[in-house]
Amino acid sequence: MKELIGRQLKKDVLSNFGLILIRRHTILNETHIDKLMSHNIVLSLNDVEAPQTPGEVREKLVSEATDEIREVFKSLNLDKPVSIKEVSQDLFPTMNQFTEELDLFGLLSGIQAKDDYTYRHNIGVGVISTMIGKWVKLSHDELQLLTLAATLHDVGKVKIPEEVLNKPGKFTDKEYELMKNHTVYGYEILQKADVTDPRLALVALQHHERTNGKGYPNGIGGHKMDYFSKIVAVADVFHAMTSKRVYREAVPFYEVVKQLNSSKFGELDPEITSVFLQNIMTISIGNGVILNDGRKAKVVFVHPKDPIRPLIDVDGQFVDLSKDDRVQIMKIVG
Ligand SMILES: [Fe+2]
Fold first, then answer.
1. Do 153 and 60 sit in the same domain of this protein?
2. CA of 259 to the centre of ligand 1 (A)
3. CA of 207 to the centre of ligand 1 (A)
4. Is the same domain home to 125 and 144?
5. DSSP secondary structure of 298-328
6. Which residue in 98, 149, 257, 288 could disulfide with 203, CB within 3.0 to 4.6 Å?
7. Same structural domain for residues 166 and 21?
8. CATH code: domain of residue 63
9. Residue 24 is part of a domain; what is its CATH number?
10. CA-to-CA distance for 80 and 82, rounded, in angstroms?
């Protein structure tokens, strides 16, 4: 099987007990081949393909996960029985693979919604919520439940007519009221699921609630919101704003972090939002950025008390964004 070294697996390789031995898209090396041989597994050239770039692999994984979510949502809409337990078994390895990726900003742009907003958005919110869950140090079991709840948070949208969902313009009051129902529909759908933890359905119900009580559907305040719902609310706002929609372009990065930062004074949970902004900005250190005047720069230092306005290096000159608000970060690149 030495001829397979350097080629990429098309599918997961399972042991005789059904456990994943080597994940799909892995580029095989000598150790992998030894592992396969020790399990008496023989692969051929049909099981592998030429290696792809990390970006191509990511895009493939995002599309596969999106397709899976689309199928799940459609089955649920037709009242076909769907095992959420099985869905989660398929999804966890992929979602985990995403959150372990080192090129976080590449990943964030990879999970930006394209034409299939409704489905990609759920994957995007699943990934971002999982990252937040790791940053706030949830236990393994809690993290798995959060990933699942976040990935299914908008499942109630299957009950909203397509023409309202994908309307290119602003909603009328009546359409907005209709749209809001996706939270209650999601709650009803997930209450019947085979994963019996009530938090799964609660996240679908509460992710548009706000800590100041001005959210929907019930206008409950932060003290009544589940902690998972608060995490998903932050991830939802971030992913929605950074995605291109039928009626607007993606919002520039500085605008998104600025809005998130101001939302922590009332709408979003202040602690979760701070953890998110602090981590995402710290990860950006060393990354290239595009400024609002088109110049390229690099993030050099993130102020712990003001993470959204870092110190950047523009053509060898340091610019402190906390002191100069004419310069803004439009986009963070790899
Ligand atoms: Fe939603």
1. yes
2. 18
3. 6
4. yes
5. EEEEEETTEEEEEEEEETTEEEETTT-TT--
6. 149
7. no
8. 1.10.3210.10
9. 3.90.105
10. 6
Half-sphere exposure (CA, 13 Å, Cβ side) for 188? 12
The domain of 189 spans 54-250
Ligand 1 center to residue 130 CA distance, Å? 17
Alpha-carbon distance 196 to 185, whole Å?
17
Same domain, 296 and 178: no
Q: Which helix (H) or strand (E) element contains residue 229? A: helix 227-242
* pTM of the full structure: 0.84
Ligand 1 geometric centre to CA of 73 (Å):
14
Tell me the sheet residues that pair with 53. Answer: none
In a domain, residue 280? The reply is: no
Q: How far is ligand 1, taken at its centre, from the CA of residue 124, in Å? A: 12
Do 43 and 106 reside in the same domain of the chain?
no
Distance 232 CA to ligand 1 centre (A): 10
Q: Does 262 reside within a domain?
A: no
Q: Indicate if 30 and 97 belong to the same structural domain.
A: no
User: Six-digit token pair at 160?
Assistant: 């909203």
Is-contact 311 300, C-beta < 8 A?
yes
Let me know whether 31 and 78 are in one domain: no
Question: Do 227 and 326 share a structural domain?
Answer: no
Total domains, the chain:
3
> How many Å apart are CA 203 and CA 183, to the nearest integer?
9
Residue 217 lies in a domain: yes
Alpha carbon of 41 to ligand 1 centroid (Å) = 44
Residue 139 counted as domain residue: yes
CA of 264 to the centre of ligand 1 (A): 19
